[in-house]
Design brief:
single chain, mainly beta, Immunoglobulin-like, 2 domains, 6-stranded antiparallel beta sheet, 4-stranded antiparallel beta sheet, elongated
């Protein structure tokens, strides 16, 4: 039975030292975490990697560090133009769906995904008055809702922790609409 647990994968590749040979293995840390914590009964992850997205022939069974925290796992890979990895959660009696494939070069530094500005409250407001002291707008009337974790526009801050959100992501209350919807957002 497959469960639909969504997974997040990230990778950090240690940079090759200038004295290292091109054929020397590179230490990689793959971090696996369920998108929605906790996953009760989770025992760990199946991790598969390869130099082609269709041939993930190197496999590991990785015990979960906990059901409420990401699990980092160090592996050694040969330098290649690109490596591809995929993971799935396993439980005692079932395995989850495979994550999307993570692609990264080995032999260079791969940045860890940076924090994203996302919604932390489902309330959406229309634009209120302009605050000349901060050159920002204030939220005004409640006009709709938005799912948690939706992206916010970091280039369009309002006052406090309010930012503009895409109108397509808003579920509007009645016939009320605004071209500049605001929601509470944080870097996570």
């Amino acid at each position: 039975m497959k469960h639909r647990h969504r997974l997040l994968l990230s990778a950090i590749a240690a940079a090759l030292a200038s004295s290292a040979l091109a054929a020397d293995p590179v230490s990689i840390t793959i971090t696996m975490s369920p998108k929605d914590f906790p996953v009760l009964g989770m025992q760990g992850y199946n991790l598969s990697c390869g130099t082609s997205p269709t041939v993930l022939d190197q496999k590991w069974k990785v015990p979960a560090a906990s059901q409420t925290a990401p699990t980092p796992f160090k592996i050694s890979l040969q330098p290649a133009d690109r490596w591809y990895c995929q993971a799935q959660i396993y439980e005692a009696a079932a395995e989850g769906a495979w994550s999307p494939i993570l692609s990264f070069p080995v032999g260079t530094v791969v940045p860890v995904p940076t924090k994203r500005l996302i919604t932390v409250d489902s309330k959406v407001y229309n634009t209120g008055s302009f605050d000349p002291a901060s050159w920002r707008v204030r939220p005004n009337k409640l006009v709709g809702s938005i799912g948690l974790g939706k992206p916010c526009d970091a280039t369009k801050p309002a006052t406090g922790e309010f930012y503009r959100v895409p109108t397509a992501s808003v579920t509007w209350l009645g016939s009320t609409r605004t071209s500049y919807p605001l929601a509470m957002c944080k870097l996570l």
